[in-house]
Amino acid sequence: MASSALQQPILAPQEIRRKPLTWSRIFFRQFLKNKGALFGAIYLIIIFLVAIFAPLIAPFDPLDMHPKDMLQPPNAHYIFGTDHYGRDIFSRIVFGARISLAVGLLANVFSVALGMIIGLTAGFYGGRWDMISMRFMDMIFAFPGILLALSIIGLVGKRSLSWVMIALAIVWIPMYARLIRGSVLSAKESVYVDAARVVGVNNLRIMGRHVLPNVIAPVIVVATLCIGVAIRNAAALSFLGMGAQPPTPEWGLMLFETKQFLRLAPWVTIFPGLAILITVIAFNLLGDGLRTALDPKLKVG
């Protein structure tokens, strides 16, 4: 007995104290390694706080006009300068963050919800519903996104941010439906799904409890990337006059209203343009970081 006890390996103190690697620990370890994702996350936290506390941060009302101060360059009083109506550009960008983030989030929530229902049921049940729904998704997917959004708004005849969100959501439903369907086709053949069927679990419970949690990771990544795309496309539609209408402090509309003053007062377009650019890049960096952290094939160092 004594000799067998002596033959057992002696564990180092660090091996004894080492905590087991849970899913959350692996995720955060991978995510924190990505400096670009960290920058994107920090910037987006700041911009969300700016949007929430816009009335406390903005020094002026975004709609107030000061004709005597029109086209003022950046200075101590107007840190981003003023536009051709004398409105404070910084205040309009701060309030514009609310609009742009809301458009990006709501458009994606709507498209994810519908795309998830279509893709989950089509992949799980298959058959005629799978063929009909996917062919209809292919028809929508065949149109260029921005052109389809323009067509929807044009057919409705109402130029507003509400219809911009609806149009962008419709554009992305096929992408989410196809993505989820592909993941469901492999997940539904897993052993745990067969086990659930054997014990008599109904299909709705299997889809919600066993299949959906295992296909949600790629949806989160794509949705994060698409929020930035939605902000960019909403700004493009407003620039074309199909989205937000004056005097709404929306970033794309700010570019449209001041484009003729680009040479005379370049700050009127530089700051709204930078707001769009940095926000879209931040969402792309965050999405890339989430993709890396959620990839189960990566090795943990």
Model description:
The protein has 301 residues and is mainly α. The chain has a single domain (27-51, 81-294), classed as MetI-like (MetI-like fold, Orthogonal Bundle). The protein contains 14 helices and no strands. The chain has helices spanning 2-7, 13-17, 23-33, 35-52, 54-57, 89-125, 127-141, 145-156, 161-187, 191-198, 203-211, 216-239, 251-258, 267-294. Helix 6 (89-125) packs antiparallel against helix 7, helix 6 (89-125) packs parallel to helix 9 and helix 12 runs parallel beside helix 13 (251-258). The radius of gyration is 25 Å and the shape is elongated. The mean pLDDT is 86.
Helix content: over 70%
Q: Beta-strand percentage?
A: under 5%
Oligomer: single chain
**Poorly predicted residue ranges:** none
- CATH architecture heading: Orthogonal Bundle
What distance separates the N and C termini? Answer: 39 Å
Largest sheet: none
In CATH, what is the class?
Answer: Mainly Alpha
> What is the CA-based Rg, rounded?
25 Å
Q: Kindly state the number of beta strands.
A: 0
Structure characteristics:
301 residues, mainly alpha, MetI-like fold, elongated
Describe the SSE topology:
Elements: H1 2-7, H2 13-17, H3 23-33, H4 35-52, H5 54-57, H6 89-125, H7 127-141, H8 145-156, H9 161-187, H10 191-198, H11 203-211, H12 216-239, H13 251-258, H14 267-294
